Amino acid sequence: MRYLNLIIYFLLISTNSFAQKNQKKIEIINADFTYVNNKSHPDYWRLIGNVNIRHDQTDMFCDSAHYFSEKEKIIAYENVKVKKGDSINISGDILNYDGENKVAIISRNVILINKENILKSQRLIYNIQKKKISFNSLSEISKGNQKISAKKGIYNTNSRSYQFNDSVNYYNNNYQIITDHLISDEKNKITLLKGPSEILFDNKVVFCEEANLFEKENKAEFFKKASLKTEKYILFADSIFFNKNNNNLRAKNNVVLEDSINNFFIESNNALYIENQKKMIFNKNPLLNLVSDEDTVFIKADEFHNQDISSKKILYAFNNVKILNNDIKGKCDSLTFSTSDSLIYLYKNPLLWLDEYQISSDSMRINYYNKRINKLFLISNPIIISKQDSTLFNQIKGKYMEGDFFNNKLKNINVLGNGQSIYFIEENKEIIGMNYLESSNIYLSFKENKINNINYKKSPYSITTPLKDIIEEKKYLKGFNWKIKEKPERQKIFNQQL
């Protein structure tokens, strides 16, 4: 009885071992014709007609095949099909199958169907054990309205994620991508881009070296030398974050907005675009550059708003506004620049300095036409001051003033209404007296930003007082306020940008 039990035990072990071994063996399910030479090549089978081979829940079909039983290898031809359950269907012309490593190489006119994904290639390597499909020739994967082509790639059939490399092109109804390296996670609807990339959407073009695209959230992140190009401008930044739900975006670090149509660009370290307001806000150390052939005008402020209103584009500058080019320095509390009519408005205690002349007014308007400052309008209580010596100042004021520029240099100023002037008379380089004059209209011509001539259009009232007889309060016109310490310095402004 003991020996009988031992025999039964060993029989069971042998049966189980055979079953386990048999599971790993390739099964010939069907062939119309089978050729085997048991004497010379017992390990070689030739299979012809409606061939069906099975290995570890993977079915392979073809018109003909070579089966090498010892090495567990299959070479199959014509109408090749590989099926893995209900999820993987591959067709092609040639199949090389390594049963020991569970690797199938399918060549020529290859089509893989994995649920909604269709992959076309001339050569695929299907690692059944690792559930990965790779290719190294120009291939294309499609799903609904989206298509991806690349020269190299790996597709994970389990996670439905893929990596494409080398000449990657991605298309769908919303955007197109050209990149070196694309990683897509279909389960989480996330696409990653590595290397120089170009993304086209909504008449916009994005260039970057890294990107994250979140399909569920309808958002995108662009990094490393990122740029966004539209019909109206180009935006550069280290990082750009785009929300497709509302078309808002944020740009961070080394931000530059370049408007080639209106010849200006804005530098900042932070920018926010709000679609429903058609507005872009620059609020971290921003600097506006009005580009000119002769001399660029720089405008510094705490915050800029670049906004489209109807057919107009208007730039707003808020708080601590500074203006400068080679010939003009200025400041005010706030400023607007309308690109449609080329007018710059300065508000709240505006001041301008042209070399030795300080110009102030309740408000100012500058005509910036054809990349040049063409005209200056001083509105309400304007006054021009220049320093004669440490205690004496030449002054001109009026109700309203207009100035003309040539090549960004002041050419003349017209004082219109209630003109008044104080000038100190110099003889042999010594000040001998003061001239006070009143005239409704005064015309001043300039040369190299210095007063060259003064004309009075109507007979002026004039009085000259010797220096020793001048009363202190008579030295100043109403509204006099010398603010040379507030004059912007180029070096300080640009040091702030660094």
Proportion of beta-strand residues: over 45%
Largest β sheet strand count, sense and barrel closure = 38 strands, antiparallel
- What is the CATH architecture annotation of one domain? Sandwich
The 3D shape can be described as rod-shaped
Alpha-beta content class: mainly beta
Tell me the layout of helices and strands.
Elements (H helix, E strand, L loop, with lengths): L1 H23 L2 E4 L2 E5 L3 E15 L2 E11 L4 E12 L3 E11 L4 E12 L2 E11 L4 E4 L3 E5 L2 E5 L1 E5 L4 E11 L4 E10 L4 E12 L2 E11 L4 E11 L4 E10 L4 E12 L4 E11 L4 E4 L4 E4 L6 E4 L2 E7 L2 E13 L3 E11 L4 E5 L3 E4 L2 E4 L2 E7 L2 E8 L3 E5 L5 E5 L2 E7 L2 E19 L2 E18 L2 E7 L4 E6 L23 H8 L1
Antiparallel strand pairs: 1-3, 2-3, 3-4, 4-5, 5-6, 6-7, 7-8, 8-9, 8-10, 9-12, 10-11, 11-13, 12-13, 13-14, 14-15, 15-16, 16-17, 17-18, 18-19, 19-20, 20-21, 20-22, 21-24, 22-23, 23-25, 24-25, 25-26, 26-27, 26-28, 27-30, 28-29, 29-32, 30-31, 31-34, 32-33, 33-35, 34-35, 35-36, 36-37, 36-38
Give structural notes.
The protein is mainly beta and 498 residues long. Among the domains are: 106 residues, lipopolysaccharide transport protein A fold (Sandwich); 135 residues, lipopolysaccharide transport protein A fold (Sandwich), CATH 2.60.450. Helices cover 6% and strands 65% of the residues. The chain has a 38-stranded antiparallel beta sheet that branches. A hairpin with a 3-residue loop joins strand 5 and strand 6. The N and C termini lie far apart (96 Å).
